Amino acid sequence: MSPIVDAYQNGTLKHHDSGSSLFEIEDSDLSRLLDKRRPLNIERKRSFDERSFSDMSISSPPRQFYRNSENSSRVFDNFGTLYSSGMSGVSTPRSISCVDAHPIVAEAWVALQRSIVHFRGQPVGTIAALDHSSEELNYDQVFVRDFVPSALAFLMNGEPEIVKNFLLKTLRLQSWEKKVDQFTLGAGVMPASFKVLHDPVKNYETIIADFGECAIGRVAPIDSGFWWIILLRAYTKSTGDTSLAELPECQRGIRLILTLCLSEAFDTFPTLLCADGCCMIDRRMGVYGYPIEIQALFFMALRCALNLLKNDDEGKECADRISKRLHALSYHMRSYFWLDIKQLNDIYRYKTEEYSHTAVNKFNVMPDSLPDWVFDFMPTRGGYFIGNVSPARMDFRWFCLGNCIAILSSLATPEQASAIMDLIESRWEELVGEMPLKICYPAMESHEWRIVTGCDPKNTGWSYHNGGSWPVLLWLLTAACIKSGRPQLARRATELAEARLLKDHWPEYYDGKLGRYAGKQARKNQTWSIAGYLVAKMMLEDPSHLGMISLEEDKQMKPQMKRSASWMC
């Protein structure tokens, strides 16, 4: 049984037994440490090669939003339209001027504002979805991964308070004992989500957290800790305020997350071994093993942690371990996960049952296991990081999040990043279609769907995680396009999204090969669909925002690799 904790004003804790992982957090526990703020040194730097973005200029005046000084809960645009700010205590938006001043921007901000969750008067996150037409399930909770695009939107709009509060509250959740049945999870595990509960009788609020004990399949969220580190770095980069990251509690939180990932075991690879359903794809989808999404997030979190750790004894020891792992991980991913037409042809000609250090087919992959679709999908120019590599198994599916994060973290070399963009452009109909963006491609159908998903009725072909189109991925595509010097692709995808999202009430995902239909079980007013669109728009307007979510290439980690034909002009 997990304890319930009552937090008294003097800070003492009273434990009770309960069937839920539930406890309370005093607002002053960590935030009081930030009362004496350091002077901010805000300097926004581009984290990509300096390029001309004059092609993004607009001829029409930008749409502006103004807050009525008499009533801060009302927002007016320059056409005199009144928007209610709902229940938010955050001044959103302060001012917006977008690339094409699309009218749904105002609606998106109002919807994002209504999704804000408060804990004892402070904004601490955004709810997953505000769809009262469907059963809430866990869509009424604040998910760590779901909040990331919301947090970026607030940071880009100059409103860091909610992001700071979120980081502190989830840090407190990490510190509590976590059990699934009789098994205790590692100290560094971050929650998948949390929910604020209000007791109307006592007029008191508590927080209930889910570390995987309530999740589908009871899988702990490996990606939550990585997203937390990435978001902490984004907050620090955006505000110039290092005091939050330098808190002893934050430093300890970073080290606890990394201790889980860097511990010695029986692994012969630098990649992380994972169970199915441990990330954004949180249902059985055959991503067990070494999925690209987790490996890319792992790489990015390691690099962010290097920037955040203090230069003390504990920080130095952790940084040394990170550096060693980064070198091994970058080599492994760039060498064995990368696929272009030359590598595909090499695998097609592989010999099997090779033994010794000179083996070419190091994972003993059977050439007959190559799926037919990949030969037609692979363009002459282009490439991508495949979904999974493990002994005798390669998952050749395209996964959007992993490839975009690979670009943003510089796991992908500049040549590989360009090749990924070439692939997206060449296979636009398959990967983008009528609604950006396919979470994976292609979908599993018939016998393969039955075997791999266990006949999952939610993940039927071209739906949900199985080839569905997810609008939230628009912000990742936009960031990757800007970093790779292809902003025109991001604008093209954004225009597609704008034509449907508001009219369809911001669905969670779309179904069909082209993403033509709102998902059969998709929640409406999905917060990260809203926030993902806003982040994409703001990055296109001001590409310097990319600096908070992008990392430059580390030349020391770049291995000597022979370029394939797909990398050459």
Automatic annotation (TrEMBL):
A Pfam family: Glyco_hydro_100
GO molecular function: beta-fructofuranosidase activity; endo-alpha-N-acetylgalactosaminidase activity
InterPro entries: 6-hairpin_glycosidase_sf (IPR008928), 6hp_glycosidase-like_sf (IPR012341), Glyco_hydro_100 (IPR024746)
UniProt keyword list: Carbohydrate metabolism, Glycosidase, Hydrolase
Cleavable signal peptide: none
Enzyme Commission (EC) number: 3.2.1.26
Highest taxon, organism lineage: Eukaryota
Catalysed reaction, written as an equation: Hydrolysis of terminal non-reducing beta-D-fructofuranoside residues in beta-D-fructofuranosides
Described purpose of this protein according to its UniProt entry: Invertase that cleaves sucrose into glucose and fructose.
Family: Belongs to the glycosyl hydrolase 100 family.
Name this protein carries in UniProt: Alkaline/neutral invertase
Protein's organism: Abeliophyllum distichum
